Amino acid sequence: MNIFKAFENDIRKLLEDLAAEGRIPAGLDTSRLTVEPPREAAHGDLSTNAAMILAKPAGKPPRALAEMLVEKLKARPDVASVEIAGPGFVNLRLSADVWRDRIRDVLTAGTAYGDSTLGAKEPVNVEYVSANPTGPLHAAHGRGAVFGDALAALLEKAGYAVTREYYINDAGAQVDVLARSTFLRYREALGEDIGEIPAGLYPGEYLKEVGQALAQKDGNKWVGTDEAEWLPACRDFAIATIMEWIKEDLGVLGVRMDVYSSERALVKAGAVDTALTALEDRGLIYVGVLEPPKGKKPDDWEPRPQTLFKSTDFGDDVDRPLKKSDGSFTYFSNDIAYHFDKHRRGFNTLIDVWGADHGGYVKRMQAATTAITEGKAALDVKLCQLVHLMKNGEPVKMSKRAGTFVTLRDVIEEVGKDVVRFIMLTRRNDQTLEFDFAKVVEQSKDNPVFYVQYAHARCRSVLRHAATAMPGADLSLAALAAKANLARLDSEEEMALAKRMATWPRMVESAAEAHEPHRVAFYLYDLASDFHALWNKGRDDASLRFLIDGDEEVTVARLALVSAVATVIASGLAVMGVEPVEEMRS
């Protein structure tokens, strides 16, 4: 149960009652009405802006309308107190039983607690990673992979029908460079001295593996042939090989894609022509000459007629070229076709996860998506900033295999999948992330991975001790939900935990709507902090310990609380793709 959404609906009903009584006009627009936690806990449990946003259309001063709501809310048995704050905000304090009942909700639902019908099974396409198939994944790819995967899981928990997609950029100049680089390594594998890697080719050691595999497969079949013969073969082999590596790396990270879409297949199927014809039919393509780019001197600019898309009609800064000087399509044309293809497959909500270096590409792609789908689809682009790899504060050296970067596989092998996934979500996607190999495995409160996992492990430890101390007792979630007298939970720390867990369903919905999975990591840290606070209080005050000799009723109530905390942590970690630990090992 989302207690905030429940009160939001109830307040709407109270407003309808006031209208039926003739005290305010009927039919007021309540779409902007919210019920949220107050900014300061001292102000209460819930706060609503109802009187503020409806005062003018209701023809009432905000406080006068707030007083009407207070009158209605005071009559509710689940409201302990209600008051007006500032110009007309209404703050409520709920009875302790409301929060205790949320513990029972957790025990009843298990890790499905927080599942929502918000999305109403709306199809959503989340495209992420989509790294060029020219080499192994690096740490920054890992950040995008974790972000996209967690976002997909979060949207699923909020009730959306999510498709996870990888767009293979297997057309264009970069894969031809890959083919030439592979051919060089193929010749090397056959015994030729290739000398220094020429400028413009990929120098990574990983291509030795590709060249050797090609030599093993085809022998000297391509030696002495023209580029027109060997280039397609080398290109296809290299792309297939590297995509297998990428899929393996994603698998080790716990990422499984539903769809792999090929740019080359899309172009070959005529999708670009189809998309551009649709734009042309609506008068959105023309031949014109663009102004010189900012920062270029006039004598550096060679004006020429180009096929342009009216991107400025849809919020972009300038119109964008669709064809190169040789008449071939630009990357932008291909990307328009790809997003049109996603829309035609039934997706009106499109989310792309890109690297920060693609920031200048966002406006044109959003403009094109709006245009090609006639406003039916919306594209949200989430940019992931860089990851700085450190060890004890010093930058980590580059990988020998990759040549220019540390591979994602290197990072996972060093600290483990769960640590990588958790740490990648401890910053907003648009903020630079510092990943220190030493700090992320540190056993301290400053390491959020350890702090959250330690809370779960402590919960499981309590439950194991309880099973030993109470042989034969049924301590399952269902049994605890049925028999625990939660009224025995009355300490400040116990109620803080109950209130924190009650906010999980709201957090799921708000994070899903904002496309911000990092909020899950922040929430889990706060929940863990509340639990550790209760644990530490019990060390000083024996009456607050979880297992109380001679008082089975309070023990069972506290075991219900502990089980609920472990369940909510597990529910949040599942969104992050992280396994909860049963016990901590040094």
UniProtKB/TrEMBL annotation:
Q: Which SUPFAM superfamilies match?
A: Anticodon-binding domain of a subclass of class I aminoacyl-tRNA synthetases, Arginyl-tRNA synthetase (ArgRS), N-terminal 'additional' domain, Nucleotidylyl transferase
Known catalytic reactions: tRNA(Arg) + L-arginine + ATP = L-arginyl-tRNA(Arg) + AMP + diphosphate
Keywords of the record, alphabetical order, are: Aminoacyl-tRNA synthetase, ATP-binding, Cytoplasm, Ligase, Nucleotide-binding, Protein biosynthesis
Entry-linked Pfam families: Arg_tRNA_synt_N (PF03485), DALR_1 (PF05746), tRNA-synt_1d (PF00750)
Which molecular function GO terms apply here?
arginine-tRNA ligase activity
Q: Where does this protein reside within or beyond the cell?
A: Cytoplasm
Arginyl tRNA synthetase N-terminal domain: from which residue to which, for each copy?
A: 5-94
Which InterPro entries does this chain map to?
Answer: Arg-tRNA-ligase, Arg-tRNA-synth_N, Arg-tRNA-synth_N_sf, ArgRS_core, DALR_anticod-bd, Rossmann-like_a/b/a_fold, tRNAsynth_Ia_anticodon-bd
Q: Would you say which domain of life the source belongs to?
A: Bacteria
The chain positions of domain DALR anticodon binding read 452-584
Its Enzyme Commission number(s) read 6.1.1.19
Q: Which family is it part of? A: Belongs to the class-I aminoacyl-tRNA synthetase family.
Q: How does it assemble?
A: Monomer.
Q: What's the protein here called?
A: Arginine--tRNA ligase
Report the source organism.
Answer: Azospirillum rugosum
